[in-house]
Design a protein that fits this description.
The complex is a heterotrimer of chains A (184), B (551) and C (218).
Chain A (H helix, E strand, L loop, with lengths): L11 H21 L7 H21 L7 H25 L19 H4 L2 H4 L10 H10 L43
Helix pairs in contact in A: 1-2
Chain B lengths: L19 H5 L4 H29 L11 H37 L7 H23 L13 H4 L4 H28 L12 H32 L13 H35 L6 H14 L15 H11 L3 H15 L8 H24 L1 H7 L3 H31 L5 H27 L14 H31 L42 E3 L5 E3 L7
Antiparallel strand pairs in B: 1-2
Chain C lengths: L20 H36 L1 H8 L4 H26 L3 H32 L17 H34 L9 H25 L3
Helix pairs in contact in C: 1-5, 1-6, 3-4, 3-6, 4-5, 5-6
The chains are: A mainly alpha (184), B mainly alpha (551), C mainly alpha (218).
């Protein structure tokens, strides 16, 4: 056999030790979570999880012994997840003007809590269709000038596809240019 | 440069093994590439017809034959979705790349032939979903499926997004296959920096396909869950955030723009050297700039969202990063132009499309810089300027490169030549028609004509009319191309192994190639761009010169 | 590939376009790792959604996570780690031509995976019963914070996608187990066992992160 198959020589005790380490680390992370360290809880939990995942990757998945190309591919995947989360949160955590940046979604409290009585929903969902008319009509008035009718043709009627959840009715009358932007 | 003693091989991949069943279950990369080619051209035709209908509607300011804006919305959505997901993204890698890549590497096949076939059938399944969506009422959201409109419209968004979801898997499998093929199946002696530049282009493309497409899958999955279960992540009525959807969508779809253009750049790197009969200038710069574009493409997606309500800080960062795309793209263009400088340029059909590419891609690229500038984009956003920009890059760039590739490898694929005369006429009509159609749209956009409207103010009529007439010229060019390409299969002159006198390995085997690509594994006797020391004479034999030809 | 004349030195599991078994094995491994990278990116999208909403609504996440059953979550974590170990053990056995050991370990893995899914089933059915559900299906009235249905939306999306992967993994393990029983694999050729093992470890790895993110918020 060539030198490429050297994982043959990995003894079983390596795997047993890794297994025991993973169990111990699970115990540690559960135990730590019973204390309140504020934001540090998340840091500790993620650090422990990263150590566990690294152990799995290096030994169970043979990354420590194998061609380093595989490790490169793996790290590349993780790296781009990092890029994705970081750059997205540059937006979501700093919404608004430069000098008045704040974190938050477009609409903080879901409109669905206003239009839908949560307790009533337990006994069959309330009919949410009643609230649509007013939302729909406000959307239309902004587009009375129908010379540019391309997007104006979006349905103004409040008939909603029966598969639609009731909580979504408030957006039914919006036309595309009210959605924040179109793509290039 | 066609060979004097060309013969047509008796047995080749097209007829060996024979029978329809051997085609449907083939594991041969050449046959799979060809099946992809036909499927892609089918959808290109449909997308093209939709485009012609859109331009016909826009001939006059009022609504003509579309009874409502609904129909128009569906038309431009289908045009966009079909052209992007069913045509451009698989066009060069899955059709031409599949055919050429193993030949260029001196390999018998791609690394995973079964996955390759699976990729094709997954593509077919995805396209059936899309067709189902069209039959059941089409989609009117635009190809971007922006929430919250896409979660509230009554059109069949779910089947279309399911189709795109499935198509994503096809794209991933192609990319995975290509990366492993390039790593593991290069013939002995073929080191990384001897690879043809088309291979580098495909490799960079495959990296993007691998890293970006999964995020599209999860985005569309969440969108489907949003519509069916209302989980609320993207829906402001449910406390979610529609701008977050745009982050998810563009994290895939901006790199996807480079999935479209990078293999095209690879083709141009081949043709510009072959038809200038001159060594490619700056090989390593072209190779690494492909990887550079692939990397930067992941950092700039927010420039699609400057007016979406994303934070000003993020917009500034994305605008700044966007300019970096210009550097590797510029490096490539300079190297291509320098390759042509003092070369012995022969204006055969592939070179005509290559020149079209260089001209149109530069315009598309420069207007991209305008749009990447934050303040300018706020003014031009959602106008025809944007429409013109991305048509210049995608059609003027990718489609021109695709046509260059189709004309360049056509003799290899079929063993027969097309009519150079009609090819030149078609190339001329396509170039003129394209510029008539889309250059006017830059002007329209800067004057304030917004995109996605089926009626407009009277003041825009002359330019819109000119653009629509241009679309007919463009359509005529494609029609002529269809005729002479199909005609060449029956009446075309026999091409011989190497009609262009090119040096890469796909030209050293017969045209069409045998089932196993090569009779003997090719050997590295010269570089693929050594046009200064190797000459292919009219008998297809290679003549080696002692001294490099001074240029 | 029936048209290829089989060289006597070529074993039947060597595809015609590879020159030797080492090249084929390395190709398969590289392909698998690239596939795993796509899996990371797929889950990465959901992790991004999680990060964004947790950063927006930290108190709500803190309150909502208390309705999850930490005991069941911990058991599931240990079960999955154990299943990862048995997969490693199975590969260890096949490398030494011990097919019986391989089959036993793969069967144990299946057992652990099934345990995981059964526990998940109990967790899910409890949540469905009391209305801790995504979006507009939400009707649980024990939580006060802003938009708790979003927590459950993300919870179901992430654990649901993970659960689907567990089910796929179970199918794949069954497949290589049958293959081992039929004698297809040996110390000379066990690439499919190794590939399935890699997939299973990734599923485990994802859960290693899901567990603290949902069950152990402060």
């Amino acid at each position: 056999m060539s030198q490429h198959t050297h994982e043959h020589h990995i003894p079983l005790w390596v795997f047993v030790n890794v297994f025991l380490a993973l169990i111990v680390l699970t115990g540690i992370t559960v135990w730590v979570s019973t204390f309140d360290f504020g934001p540090l809880n998340l840091v500790i939990a993620m650090a422990v999880a990263t150590v566990k995942a690294t152990l799995v990757g290096l030994f169970f998945m043979h990354l420590y012994y194998d061609n380093k190309m595989y490790m490169f591919v793996f790290i590349l995947g993780v790296l781009f997840v990092g890029v994705f989360i970081t750059l997205t949160m540059y937006d979501t955590m700093r919404r608004g003007d430069l000098d008045d940046a704040k974190a938050g979604p477009i609409q903080t409290q879901a409109a669905f809590y206003d239009s839908l009585d949560i307790r009533a929903a337990k006994f069959g969902h309330g009919d949410g269709h009643g609230t649509t008319g007013e939302h729909g009509s406000t959307a239309t008035t902004e587009h009375e000038d129908t010379t540019h009718a391309g997007t104006d043709a979006v349905p103004h009627d409040t008939t909603i596809d029966s598969t639609q959840p009731a909580g979504m009715d408030s957006t039914a009358g919006h036309s595309p240019e009210e959605t924040p932007a179109e793509g290039h | 440069m066609s060979t004097a003693t060309a013969t047509f091989p008796q047995k080749h991949y097209l007829n060996d093994p024979p029978g329809l069943k051997s085609w449907l279950f083939t594991l041969d990369h050449k046959r799979i590439g060809l099946m992809y080619f036909f499927a892609i051209m089918f959808f290109f035709t449909i997308g093209g017809i939709l485009a012609m209908l859109i331009r016909l509607e826009l001939l006059t300011p009022q609504g003509d034959f579309f009874q409502s804006g609904d129909t128009y919305n569906q038309m431009f959505t289908l045009h966009g979705a079909i052209m992007i997901f069913l045509f451009i993204i698989p066009s060069i890698p899955a059709a031409l790349g599949n055919f050429v890549l193993p030949l260029m590497l001196g390999a018998k096949d791609v690394a995973f032939p079964r996955l390759n076939l699976a990729s094709f059938y997954i593509y077919v399944v995805g396209s059936i979903f899309c067709i189902y969506s069209i039959v059941t009422g089409a989609v009117d959201t635009g190809w971007t499926f922006y929430t919250p409109y896409s979660t509230s419209t009554t059109t069949s968004v779910v089947s279309m997004t399911s189709g795109v979801f499935v198509l994503g898997f096809s794209s991933i499998l192609t990319g995975l296959n290509f990366i492993v093929t390039v790593h593991k199946l290069r013939a002995p002696g073929l080191t990384w920096f001897k690879l043809p530049l088309f291979v580098w282009g495909l490799y960079a493309t495959a990296i993007i396909q691998i890293l970006a497409t999964p995020v599209l899958a999860i985005t569309l999955l969440l969108l489907i869950l949003e519509r069916t279960l209302g989980i609320g992540i993207f829906d402001p009525a449910l406390g979610g955030d529609p701008v977050l959807y745009q982050h998810f969508f563009w994290f895939y779809s901006h790199p996807a723009v480079y999935i479209m253009i990078l293999p095209g750049m690879g083709i141009i790197s081949e043709t510009v050297s072959v038809f200038s009969h001159k060594k490619i200038f700056g090989y390593k710069f072209i190779a690494f700039s492909s990887l550079g574009i692939a990397f930067v493409s992941f950092l700039v997606w927010g420039h699609h969202m400057f007016t979406s309500g994303q934070s000003e800080l993020a917009a500034m960062i994305f605008s700044f990063l966007t300019f970096f795309v210009g550097i590797p793209s510029g490096i490539k263009v300079f190297n291509w132009v320098t390759t042509m400088y003092k070369g012995n340029i022969s204006l055969e059909a592939p070179m005509l499309y290559t020149l079209s590419f260089l001209f149109l891609f530069c315009i598309g690229g420069f207007t991209g810089i305008f749009l990447g500038a934050l303040s300018v984009d706020v003014h031009l956003h959602d106008t025809y300027f944007v429409v013109a920009h991305f048509h210049y890059v995608m059609m003027g760039g990718t489609v021109m490169a695709f046509l260059a590739g189709v004309h360049y490898w056509w003799p290899k694929i079929w063993g027969r030549m097309y009519s150079e005369f009609w090819a030149a006429i078609a190339a001329f009509l396509i170039f003129v028609g394209f510029n008539m159609t889309f250059f006017t749209q830059f002007v329209l956009g800067s004057q304030g004509m917004p995109r996605r409207y089926y009626t407009y103010l009277d003041q825009y009529q002359p330019l819109h009319g000119f653009s629509s007439i241009g679309s007919w010229v463009l359509g005529l060019g494609f029609l002529i191309m269809a005729f002479y390409l199909v005609g060449s299969l029956f009446k075309g002159k026999i091409a011989g192994n190497n009609p262009w006198g090119a040096l890469s390995w796909e030209w050293s085997t017969t045209s069409p190639p045998p089932h196993h690509n090569f009779e003997t594994v090719p050997e590295m006797t010269h570089g693929f761009y050594d046009y200064d020391t190797v000459l292919v004479n009219e008998h297809g034999e290679k003549v080696y010169k002692e001294e490099p030809v001074s240029v | 590939m029936s048209t290829v004349a089989q060289d006597a030195s070529h074993p039947e599991y060597l595809a015609h376009h590879f020159s030797d078994i080492e090249q084929q094995k390395e190709s398969a491994k590289l392909g698998m790792w690239i596939f795993l990278a796509t899996e990371i990116l797929t889950f990465g999208g959901l992790f991004c959604a999680y990060a964004v909403f947790r950063a927006w609504f930290p108190e709500m996440f803190h309150d909502a996570h208390k309705v999850l059953d930490l005991r069941l979550g911990t058991i599931n974590t240990i079960v999955l780690i154990a299943s990862s170990f048995t997969v490693v053990y199975a590969i260890y056995c096949i490398q030494r031509n011990n097919r019986t050991g391989t089959v036993i370990n793969l069967a144990l893995t299946l057992l652990f995976a099934a345990t995981f899914m059964v526990i998940k089933y109990f967790e899910y059915s409890h949540k469905i019963h009391v209305g801790q559900l995504p979006g507009h299906f939400y009707f649980y009235d024990g939580l006060e914070g802003t938009n708790p249905h979003l927590f459950f939306g993300i919870y179901f999306a992430m654990t649901g996608l993970h659960g689907v992967h567990v089910l796929i993994g179970m199918g794949l393990i069954t497949w290589v187990m049958i293959g081992t029983l039929k004698g297809r694999f040996s110390s000379e050729y066990y690439v499919p066992v190794e590939m399935v093992g890699l997939f299973w470890h990734l599923v485990d790895m994802v859960w290693i992160f899901l567990f603290p993110l949902f069950y152990l918020i402060g």
